[in-house]
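Notes from hallway chat w/ T.B., transcribed later so I don't forget. T.B. wanted the structure written out for a chain they're using in a teaching module, and asked if we could keep both sequence and structure tokens in one place. Agreed to drop them here.
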Amino acid sequence: MKSKIATAAFILLPFSGQYALAEEAPKEKPALTVSAELGFLYKTGNTKSGDIKAGINLKHEKDQWLNMLAFNAIAKKIETEDETGKDVFESTDNKWDILGQSNYSLHKNGKNYLYGSAFYQQNKFNSFEYQTSASFGWGRHWWETESSSFFADVGPGVKYDVISAEPATATTAAIEEYSETAAIVQAQALYTKQINDFVEFKQYFVAKQAVESEKNSYYRAESSLTTKLIESLQFKFSFLVEHDSEVEEGFENTNTETSVTLVYSF
């Protein structure tokens, strides 16, 4: 009897090993990933205030294509009194932007890719009614390991800015709304580092350098640290710097945002 049991166990051993390997096989990475965030931030620069921040990010990978879409919005809230003298919160200014980019790898699992990107921003905190740009060019995944990655791309493009109208004050003249178109060279880079199983660091930088010296150039750098709370919920701390080389009188060239948000991935 014992010999029969041993023989059966010996026969089933390879199958049990295959079953264990199947159980431990990693899950296939989904083609589409979505994350949403909500939180508060403290701004310095043209505006110093407590604001509400929300955003959504989509990423889709299929074959040699990588498509990304990011939307961010900020609403400035201040406390005022209504007609009855009751304290209420009122939205006075807002900012929102949307960024889309598509990358096409020149070879399957290759490092080089072609990209096309478009950006639009409405920002009541600065001197622009809105800013928009488009660019295309070449990029490369310079390295990618289990814990870190770095990619950068560069290409020509065009930027279109609309400057807001401003009424005259005791010290400044009135400004009529006008627009400006500029040829640009866009360069951007993203570095990610998985510090451990729970903490990830990201550094993003983009420069939209106007070809003509008197035109406005735009620079943006964002550093973020994300900590996993549970499988689908993360805590994110980020610091953003935006710089416009040419702004109207009375506005600062550089603005910063420090934010703390909760990020939900699904």
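Follow-up for T.B.: DSSP finds one helix and twelve strands in the chain. Might be a good example for the class.
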